[in-house]
């Protein structure tokens, strides 16, 4: 089931946007941008009857209480032009454990039309191209604060070229790695907040219609008001930073102020201090001394945040035992560096004691991701508190080792939170680690290597979820008490018959899970086992193999807001990787100054 792919330069993108927003030669303020898009979409898009894949955003998945990422195949029953949305009939869900209403209203930009249609008479080529233009505009050029800004000036003249150039600079790495990764994370967070705000406001309107005034209602209203206030404050802070980063001159000044350390420095050891008596300080430094090469220069820092802001990426950072380190770190860890807690209590052997005596790392602002790694790196003797983030650690590339680490998410309330998120061409090793209370403990793309050595994944929705061609070694590992599957393999190998109809493909995708209780009977090259492994208490099966409907699509939404997508920004959670068939590949033609 292929979706449309569009390869366009940024210059082409700019010209396409100008053509849509020309306004008959008149100035178009921000308040009129949406109307211009509605007029364009009404003329171009087929109004009904075309098949598409729906890539649900993380915010939508949270509202529906379903796992993320979520890919749904269906038919557009009616395009709601005035809302830039569509009434979407659900026909097949990539995750057969997810149950959705038969019909949903979804954003047009979240739909990816299929190349193969039940009705070949429909002009789906033009429809797909129109949605692609709409999606690029709202994911990359339109900012969440544009719609609320009191500005009657020409939005096109004021913002279009500036933001296209900003896209170009991010894509082509004209900024330093620190600055570009910081900007990408800010933008991903802004997109998520925008969607979250819309959903919160809709929920508040629905609640106002249904609720009567009483004490309980007042408390609920106060909670929603607090949530809206926090989101708006965070969005305003992001806006201020992004508006500085869009200006190349201010960008250089910002980098000097925000990141005072240079690149290419010789590696140093950064020792984070703690408050305590002189004897406690000396005892801590003695413990740390045993872990540091005597020839390495040492610098003292008052917090992990301070160390991360000022250390080169190849540095080793040491954390005091029992301390809590609140961070907001949007850059990438790499270059063979490490973060190590000085406490050595084992999370596997004595979890309660380890939580008391080992260092804790937690997000201070509720960011999308706690830490992002894009090179060789080691994390040791640390508890990662992921309550305030949507993804614990995101690994983009490199050889990454987690040694005696613990990851804790929500109690079983979040349907979208992930412990470790892994992209292609990575090698991940977890030694003596615990991952618990996530929607998905470990989520991996194609072509990764994962080693679980004497480690435990427990109380998750799904313990480990991988795409085919990823290699997983279970060595004396335990996956237990999952609410769905212990281990889930998404298989995208083509096995369709020649001439297979779209309807039969839908049926095959919807009824294609194989369940195995005994890991010795799985018989897949993706899995290998050593030592005494345990898979138990997983509600719907220890191992499941499920046919996916589109590998390219699944890869493209890996961190949809986070993210998460390569060095492209705007995919929520965030999912940062090379653009695939569902995201346009953009190269930049020279633009005249």
Written description of the protein model:
- The chain is 31% helix and 28% strand.
- It has 593 residues and is an alpha/beta fold.
- The chain has a 16-stranded parallel beta sheet that branches.
Low-confidence stretches: 551-593
Percent of residues in beta strands?
25-35%
Helix content: 25-40%
**CA gyration radius, whole angstroms:** 25 Å
Please tell me the overall pLDDT: 83
N- to C-terminal distance? 42 Å
Shape: globular
Separate helix tally: 13
Beta strand count: 34
State the major sheet. Answer: 16 strands, parallel
Quickly give the structural class: alpha/beta
Short summary of the structure?
This protein is 31% helix and 28% strand. It is α/β, with parallel strands linked by helices and 593 residues long. The chain has a 16-stranded parallel beta sheet that branches.
Task: Itemize the secondary structure elements and their pairings.
Blueprint: E1 7-9, H1 10-20, H2 30-44, E2 51-56, H3 58-64, E3 70-80, E4 85-93, E5 103-107, E6 111-113, H4 124-141, H5 155-171, H6 177-210, H7 215-245, H8 248-258, E7 269-272, H9 278-289, E8 298-301, H10 304-310, E9 316-319, E10 324-327, E11 332-333, E12 337-341, H11 351-357, E13 359-363, E14 369-373, E15 377-385, E16 391-395, E17 398-408, E18 418-422, E19 426-431, E20 434-436, E21 440-444, E22 449-453, E23 456-458, E24 462-467, E25 471-475, E26 478-480, E27 485-491, H12 502-510, E28 514-516, E29 527-530, E30 534-536, E31 541-547, H13 551-556, E32 561-563, E33 572-574, E34 585-587
Helix pairs in contact: 1-5, 3-6, 6-7
């Amino acid at each position: 089931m292929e979706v449309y792919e569009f390869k366009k330069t940024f210059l082409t993108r700019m010209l396409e946007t100008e053509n849509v927003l020309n306004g008959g030669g008149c100035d178009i303020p921000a308040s009129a941008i949406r109307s211009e898009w509605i007029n364009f979409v009404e003329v171009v898009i087929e109004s009904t009857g075309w098949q598409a894949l729906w890539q649900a955003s993380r915010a939508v998945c949270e509202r529906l209480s379903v796992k993320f990422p979520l890919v749904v195949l269906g038919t557009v029953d009616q395009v709601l032009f005035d809302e830039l949305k569509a009434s979407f009939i659900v026909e097949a869900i990539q995750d057969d454990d997810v149950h959705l209403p038969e019909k949903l209203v979804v954003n047009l930009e979240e739909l990816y039309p299929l190349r193969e249609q039940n009705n070949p008479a429909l002009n789906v080529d033009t429809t797909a191209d129109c949605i692609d233009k709409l999606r690029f505009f709202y994911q990359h050029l339109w900012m969440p604060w544009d719609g609320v800004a009191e500005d009657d000036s020409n939005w096109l003249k004021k913002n279009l070229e500036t933001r296209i150039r900003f896209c170009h600079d991010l894509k082509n790495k004209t900024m330093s790695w620190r600055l570009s990764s910081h900007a990408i994370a800010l933008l991903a967070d802004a997109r998520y907040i925008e969607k979250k705000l819309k959903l919160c406001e809709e929920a508040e309107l629905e609640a106002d219609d249904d609720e009567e005034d009483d004490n309980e209602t007042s408390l609920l209203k106060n909670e929603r008001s607090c949530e809206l206030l926090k989101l708006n404050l965070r969005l305003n802070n992001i806006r201020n930073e992004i508006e500085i980063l869009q200006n190349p001159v201010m960008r250089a000044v910002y980098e000097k102020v925000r990141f005072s350390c240079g690149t290419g420095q010789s590696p140093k050891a950064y020792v984070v201090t703690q408050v305590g008596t002189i004897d406690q300080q000396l005892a801590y430094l003695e413990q740390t001394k045993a872990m540091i090469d005597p020839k390495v220069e040492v610098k003292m820092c008052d917090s992990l945040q301070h160390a991360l802001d000022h250390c080169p990426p190849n540095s080793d950072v040491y954390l005091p035992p029992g301390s809590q380190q609140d961070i907001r770190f949007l850059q990438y860890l790499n270059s063979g560096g490490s973060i190590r807690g000085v406490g050595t209590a084992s999370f596997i052997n004595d979890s309660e004691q380890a939580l008391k005596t080992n260092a804790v790392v937690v997000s201070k602002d509720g960011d999308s991701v706690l830490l992002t790694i894009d090179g060789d790196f080691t994390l040791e003797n640390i508890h990662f508190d992921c309550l305030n983030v949507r993804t614990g650690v995101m690994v983009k590339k490199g050889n990454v080792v987690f040694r005696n680490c613990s990851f804790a998410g929500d109690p079983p309330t979040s349907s979208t939170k992930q412990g470790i998120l892994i992209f292609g061409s990575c090698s991940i090793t977890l030694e003596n680690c615990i991952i618990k209370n996530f929607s998905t403990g470990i989520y991996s793309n194609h072509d990764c290597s994962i080693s679980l050595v004497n480690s435990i994944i427990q109380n998750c929705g799904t313990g480990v979820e991988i795409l085919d061609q990823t290699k997983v070694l279970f060595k004396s590992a335990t996956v237990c008490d999952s609410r769905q599957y212990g281990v889930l393999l998404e298989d995208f190998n083509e096995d369709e018959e020649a001439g297979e109809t779209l309807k039969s493909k839908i049926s095959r995708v919807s009824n294609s899970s194989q369940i195995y209780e005994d890991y010795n009977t799985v018989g897949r090259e993706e899995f290998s086992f050593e030592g005494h492994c345990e898979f138990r208490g997983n509600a719907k099966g220890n191992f499941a193999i499920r046919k996916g409907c589109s590998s390219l699509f699944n890869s493209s939404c890996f961190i949809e807001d986070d993210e998460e997508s390569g060095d492209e920004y705007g995919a929520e959670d965030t999912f940062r990787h090379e653009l695939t068939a569902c995201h346009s590949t953009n190269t930049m033609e020279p633009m005249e100054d």
